[in-house]
Design a protein that fits this description.
Shape: globular
CATH architecture: 3-Layer(aba) Sandwich
CATH superfamily: P-loop containing nucleotide triphosphate hydrolases
Function: Catalyzes the specific phosphorylation of the 3-hydroxyl group of shikimic acid using ATP as a cosubstrate.
Strand order of the largest sheet: 2-3-1-4-5
Organism: Capnocytophaga leadbetteri
Helix content: 40-55%
CATH class: Alpha Beta
CATH topology: Rossmann fold
Cofactor: Mg(2+)
Protein name: Shikimate kinase
Number of helices: 7
EC number: 2.7.1.71
Largest sheet: 5 strands, parallel
Structural class: alpha/beta
Length: 170
C-alpha cells in the first residue's frame, strides 16, 4: 500500500508522513528529499540554477519512479506536485491512497510565518501580504487537491490528534 500526503506547504506532510510511516511500520519518502538526492542539489538550488520548468519535469519523473516501487510507503509530496503535468492522474492511476491535509488559509499563514525565511517561494512576500498569497494559491490548487482519495480538515489539531485522525482512514 502506498499512502500519499498532499497539501499546501506548511501543512505538515513531512512531519506527519514520518509519524504515519512509523505507526504503520512502513518506509517514508519525502519527494523533495528524493529529488534532491537524485539531482545531487537542493530543491531551492534547482529552482535557482535550472528553473521551475526543469524542476517540474524532474519532479514528474521521480514521482513516477517512486510510485513504481514495489514497497509499501508513505510518500510526502511538495505542495505543488499534484498541480503540474500529469501528476494527479498518475497518482490516481497508481492505486495509492491520497490524503489532502486541508487547512484554512489563516492557519497556514500562522504556521508559515514562523518558517517564511526558509521557504524560497515566500521569502520575498511581506508578512501583511502572506495570507492573500496563500488564499490565491489555494484557489488555484484546490481543484487538484480535491481529487485526493480522502480530504481531512486539520485545523486546531495537535500533532498527536492529527496522526490519530490519519490512522482512522486505515
Amino acid at each position: 500500500m502506498k499512502i500519499i500526503l498532499i497539501g499546501y506547504m506548511g501543512s505538515g506532510k513531512s512531519t506527519l508522513g514520518r509519524a504515519l510511516a512509523t505507526a504503520k511500520n512502513i518506509s517514508f519518502v519525502d519527494l523533495d528529499v528524493y529529488i534532491a538526492e537524485r539531482e545531487k542539489c537542493s530543491v531551492p538550488d534547482i529552482f535557482k540554477n535550472k528553473g521551475e520548468i526543469y524542476f517540474r519535469k524532474k519532479e514528474a519523473l521521480y514521482l513516477q519512479e517512486v510510485l513504481q516501487k514495489e514497497e509499501d510507503m508513505v510518500l510526502s509530496l511538495g505542495g505543488g506536485t499534484p498541480c503540474f503535468g500529469n501528476n494527479m492522474p498518475l497518482i490516481k492511476a497508481s492505486g495509492a491512497v491520497s490524503i489532502y491535509l486541508k487547512y484554512q488559509p489563516q492557519t497556514l499563514t500562522q504556521r508559515l510565518l514562523q518558517e517564511k525565511d526558509h521557504r524560497p517561494l515566500l521569502a520575498e512576500i511581506k508578512e501583511i501580504d502572506l495570507e492573500e498569497f496563500i488564499r490565491k494559491h489555494l484557489f488555484d490548487r484546490n481543484p487538484y487537491y480535491a481529487q485526493a482519495t480522502h480530504i481531512i480538515a486539520m485545523d486546531g489539531l495537535t500533532p498527536d490528534q492529527s496522526l490519530q485522525k490519519l490512522l482512522t482512514v486505515f
